[in-house]
Amino acid sequence: MLTPEAKAELEKQQYRIIGRHSAVKTCGWTKNMIKGEGGCYKLKFYGIMSNQCMQMTTSISCANRCTFCWRGYKAPVATDWKWGVDEPETILAGSLEAHHKLLIGFKGNEKASKRAYALSRTVKHVALSLTGEPIFYPRINELIDQFHAQGISTFLVTNAQYPEQIRDLHPITQLYVSVDAPTKELLKDVDLPLFKDYWERLNQSLDYLAQKKQRTCVRLTIIKGINDLLLEKYAELIERGSPDFIEAKAYMFVGPSQQRLSMDNMPLHEEVVAFSQELAKHLPDYEIVSDHVPSRVVMFAKKKFKIDGVWKTWIDFPKFQELALSGKGFTALDYCTRTPQVGLSGKKTAEHQKEVKERFRKRTHIFVDEKTEEMAFYGGNTKASMV
Ligand code: SF4
Questions:
Q1: Could you give the maximum distance between any two Cα atoms of the chain, in Å?
Q2: pTM over 0.90
Q3: Strands (E), 124-244
Q4: How confident is the model over 277-287, as pLDDT tens digits?
Q5: Which residues, other chains included, contact 292 with Cβ-Cβ below 8 Å and sequence gap of 6+?
Q6: Where are the domains of the chain?
Q7: Which residue ranges have their beta carbon within 6 Å of ligand 1?
Q8: Do residues 16 and 102 lie in contact, with contact meaning Cβ atoms separated by under 8 Å?
């Protein structure tokens, strides 16, 4: 799938290529959490322990060339699978090995929390996102079953260009579909899709997403001045997919996307909040539940996750694993649990950046403990956790 030059380029960027078409790369938030700098937004929203998360892909190739993507245009693109297919066991074993090797430097690092690093030795979550189109891998279901058999939860992100793969996907912990623009014309400009019938594929994918029984999420990437409009059209697409969750997330001015977009296209957190509050007016079945200032993201949940007045957007991972291995049917509500911290923070990007600077100046470490509802770390209560 990769030319030797492309492989060398990716290795320089700290990707580790597994076999012929998979890759692993340590997520910045995994490192942050081990260094005591807090966890990712999926920790706050869903309970993912960022230090125990492995970020990977099973297909470096993609059928889109999204303008906002952090990949360079040297990355392979294709509509059909035309390479050898690696064994799921080989991919799983190779990815875990490469992931742990990438983190080994934290073992003796005094800045790292010994406990957070020790916990990272046990991967509990896999994020099949990283780059390319993981769902494209022909044996994705076998690999998913093997992750669950090893007690590893599965998040998978797809850009909705392979609807049948979504239809046939085995139950996973949380399935993401990216909706990158509100209309056919704008989607072409934003995603530069290879498939001629890209719009029909998106709509068919949303239809199949609506039929899924486990947790689903629609992800919007907001590019200021480009796709932050026609909210009623976004709402139509979202309602078609009927996801359990919606994430409205700012485009981040990083990597090769800087050659295609400008810093002005990156919304501030408060602009993502304003966009979300407007969008919420078109989505009566949903409510805004939470936000994460560093990632400039707002999360909506379907009202069915507010049970007896309590939001339950966190994942009961042991329950999910039990259900996934039972072979019996189950739904998203069967493995949800209480969300420790809800509500919008009311914080602006500038305020947050000032706080981070202050924390670094004071060398304040933040450690996370899932038992003590660690979300306090954004409130500066750092001593509460990690005994
Ligand atoms: S869930 Fe995503 S953002 Fe969070 S640690 Fe894993 S890869 Fe990183």
A1: 56
A2: yes
A3: 125-128, 153-158, 174-178, 215-222
A4: 999 999 999 99
A5: 40, 41, 44, 45, 299
A6: 4-379
A7: 27, 29-30, 40, 42, 48, 50, 53, 55, 127
A8: yes
